[in-house]
Design goal:
alpha+beta, 32 strands, globular, six-stranded mixed beta sheet, single chain
Length: 794
């Protein structure tokens, strides 16, 4: 529709209502520090990390290469390993000891880090709770058993184990530029991860008597020694994840002969471990555009019935990775297909491993979702550099380089709900996406969970959107974080809180940082500026160890936007957004005293929203002709999604208006006649929540036309509590809606509406839809459990 407005509206007579006179009348009374620079809150730039957010000219990081042999004893459920580690000291420091992580000790009740939680009497006790308290605890038999630790010549090295950390005292100083070669032999009993929790272990399938092994945190691993932290040897409690060193891996896994193995990197001996038919299918899959079954469903079902006593050794190699994980089971169906990353022309094998219990979902979607994820993340960050990307169905979610573990099983008859399907797709995208954050952009998860989970959840949201514009994402859109943001202050903590000390872990580490980045992209910076800056951060810190300041500084450096106010409020604070329309004053302007403006003014009237009840990202993605969405041919999914499709309203292109006044003469009678029908509207706003945000308004006129305007967050810079804006229109206003697309995470929309008849806003279709939908399978920002959390993934 076309919208006619007075030339003066939004230009000559539009002002913030805050002038020098206002400042004089209210000297500093409402001026806080929301727009002050972060200053000393951020670490001082140096030769290792610059003020621009880039690595400095003297940046360094150490490296560790691993050569590992592993033996999986299925009968005893025991893992025996022997590794040779070559550690390179690239730091400027001399090291007289080194630290390794023994993460498997967290499964032990006597070796674990022991970060206890408060406990109270339950309303109803379970059989587990009714057991006699074991004080002191009796060793449950889990945790790492070190057999020997020696130098390259076999001479014993002195070591000390402190819970989940091991210090090796070196016989001589490891100087700058030198390397250390040493060996560790160990074993441990593999835990039942379904019953005991945790990221690695086995799952037993009672119906067929088989196990599915996910071997994670399974070998003694080097800690990071860095310029900003020294040794990162904080204990592993099961929550805060990992800080790891890049290096090259060569790993051999000796397993039962009928097992299928997937792991980080490329297998170097498929010709020895696969049948001729399986090898032929594997080679075919490399050039296929559809997933090819390498190990078929029939072969997997047959293998389940025969427990071979023979053994095979699978050998994998991976370069420039920070970790190595693997999986092994005779239950696996295995499919794969080739995918090319356009940005670097990298040929990648996208593959999936899954038991028959997940066949109905994983055969249709998993490998395609893997391919879609690495391609989409490559667009928003850096081109995927590795040769393999794999998804393993293991009833939980967890990530490692080139391989991840996910959930998503069908009912016994092969059917599945739409919620299970969407949950499975979301988890696959999320876990595969972790290849970028933190497997390549290698942040310290032990200290900053949000740099791993929050950044990844943000790009997961972008990837879900490109999979299906109607994907029911519950993390990323601004409105989804509102339930969390409106919690009492004593239930909130800043995003910049250590992993171990977060109460509302999911919303704080995943949802809020992801939502913040989406608000930056859609509402504050705009897509072009944001995407360039975010890609710059990913490029600068690929295969390096970034810290929060490196992200904050890079985003500003590459965009030219001062975002310290946003980092301060969204990441360091707990204030919510609650901007209210406090009062609207309607008046007739005094044309006798109105001078001409002193400059040309050109502006555009914004397009009305396509649909006020859909998320801003979905609308813009549909309008972006460069985006092609994945087409789901599953009819039941189409029926589900389009059941909630809402109509779109066609609009004309933006119209440009120009006004010219010299600023020295009063208005002529002709001009006075032209403006005689103008009505002035002063809108007073109150910042009730504390967190500043742009002011976005939608005006609805009595003739049914609409107009939009947005003021940046800097409108609050002189008065962080109250501001006003005045508009002149040649038509009568019917109503004003603040934040009509709910893109600022405003926690109270009841004070966002004004109408000229004194009425209040009615509940929107958007809110009715949200209430009807309730919670999604993946959980929302309100802290409800999602499948990843329920299955042991934080």
């Amino acid at each position: 529709m076309k919208l006619k407005v007075a030339i003066l509206s939004l230009s000559v007579f539009a002002y913030t209502g805050f002038t020098a006179q206002n400042i004089q009348n209210n000297p500093g009374s409402n001026h806080g520090n929301k727009f002050e620079q972060l200053g000393t809150i951020l670490p001082t730039p140096n030769v290792y990390r610059t003020a621009s957010g880039a690595p400095g000219h003297a940046y360094w990081q150490n490296r560790a290469d691993y050569d590992i042999n592993a033996y999986l004893d299925e009968d005893k459920r025991n893992l025996k390993g022997s590794e040779t580690i070559t550690y390179y000291n690239n730091s400027p420091d001399d090291l007289d000891y080194i630290w390794l992580q023994l993460d498997e000790n967290q499964v032990s009740n006597v070796k674990k880090a022991d970060f206890p939680f408060s406990s109270t009497l339950p309303k109803a006790s379970t059989d587990q709770q009714l057991k006699t308290s074991d004080v002191p605890p009796t060793d449950n038999g889990f945790g790492v058993n070190l057999e020997k630790v020696t130098d390259a010549s076999g001479n014993p090295l002195k070591y000390t184990v402190n819970k989940t950390m091991m210090r090796i005292d070196l016989p001589k100083i490891l100087k700058k530029g030198e390397k250390l070669v040493f060996k560790v032999d160990w074993n441990y009993n593999i835990s039942n991860r379904i019953k005991m929790g945790g990221r690695g272990g086995y799952e037993n399938f009672a119906e067929d008597g088989n196990d599915l092994y996910t071997m994670t945190q399974w070998y003694p691993r080097m800690c990071v020694y860095s310029d900003f932290h020294g040794w990162q040897n904080h204990q592993f409690t099961g929550r805060g994840e990992f800080a790891l060193v890049f290096g090259n891996f060569k790993v051999s896994m000796n397993v039962p002969a009928d097992h299928v193995v997937g792991g980080t990197g490329e297998c170097k001996n498929y010709d020895q471990v696969l049948t001729s038919d399986q090898l032929a299918r594997y080679n075919k899959s490399k050039t296929s555009t559809e997933p090819v079954e390498i190990v078929t469903l029939d072969e997997a079902k047959k293998a389940e019935k025969n427990h071979s006593k023979q053994r095979k050794t699978w050998t994998f190699e991976a370069n420039d990775v920070r970790d190595f994980a693997w999986t092994s089971s005779r239950k696996f169906v295995w499919d794969g297909m080739g995918v090319t990353i356009p940005e670097n022309n990298n040929k990648v094998m996208a593959m999936s491993f899954y038991p028959k219990e997940a066949y109905g979902l994983y055969r249709k979607y998993s490998t395609k979702a893997v391919a879609h994820t690495i391609k989409t993340y490559s667009e928003f960050t850096i081109p995927y550099p590795y040769p393999v990307a794999q998804s393993v169905e293991a009833a939980n979610g967890m990530e490692y380089p080139m391989i991840c573990f996910n959930f998503g099983r069908t009912e016994k008859d092969g059917t599945y709900s739409e919620g299970t399907k969407n949950g499975m797709l979301g988890v696959v995208i999320h876990e595969v996406g972790h290849n970028f954050f933190p497997m390549i952009i290698n942040s310290d998860e032990r200290q900053w969970t949000w740099m791993d989970e929050g950044l990844n959840t943000f790009v997961e949201y972008l990837t879900e959107e490109k999979w299906d514009n109607k994907f029911p994402s519950k993390r990323g859109p601004a409105w989804t974080i509102v339930d969390y943001m409106k919690l009492p202050k004593d239930q909130l903590e800043p995003i910049m809180t250590n992993s171990e000390n977060i109460v509302q872990f999911g919303p704080n580490a995943y949802s809020k940082p992801a939502t913040g980045l989406n608000i930056l992209r859609e509402t504050i910076m705009g897509r072009e500026l944001f995407d360039k800056a975010f890609k710059t951060y990913a490029k600068r810190w690929a295969f390096k160890h970034p810290e929060p300041a490196d992200l904050f500084r890079t985003m500003e450096d590459a965009s030219g936007e001062d975002l310290d106010w946003f980092w301060r409020g969204w990441f360091y604070g707990t204030d919510p957004v609650d901007i209210a329309i406090d009062k609207v004053t309607v008046a007739t302007p005094d044309l006798e005293t109105a001078p001409r403006a002193a400059k040309d003014n050109t502006y555009k009237v914004d397009k009305p929203a396509v649909n006020e009840f859909e998320d801003i990202s979905k609308i813009r993605n549909r309008e972006d002709k460069n985006i092609t969405f994945y087409v789901d041919k599953d009819k039941e999914a189409q029926d589900f999604y389009y059941r909630y499709d809402r109509g779109q309203e066609k609009v004309d292109n933006n119209k440009e208006y120009t006004s010219k006044f010299d600023g020295t003469e009063p208005l002529t009678q002709k001009e006075k006649d032209k403006f005689k029908n103008l009505t002035a509207y002063q809108i007073d706003f109150v910042n009730k929540g504390g967190l500043v945000m742009p002011i976005i308004l939608e005006f609805t006129f009595e003739d049914g036309t609409k107009l939009r305007d947005k003021s940046s967050a800097q409108i609050w810079r002189m008065n962080e509590q109250k501001v006003s804006k005045t508009y002149y229109f040649d038509k009568k206003l019917k109503s004003i809606q603040l934040d009509p697309m709910r893109e600022t995470a405003d926690i109270d929309t009841s004070n966002n509406f004004w109408s000229n008849d004194g009425g209040t806003a009615q509940i929107s279709k958007f809110d009715l839809f949200k209430q009807k939908e309730g919670t999604n399978v993946r959980g929302g920002a309100n802290g409800k459990v999602n499948p990843m959390q329920a299955a042991g993934k934080k």
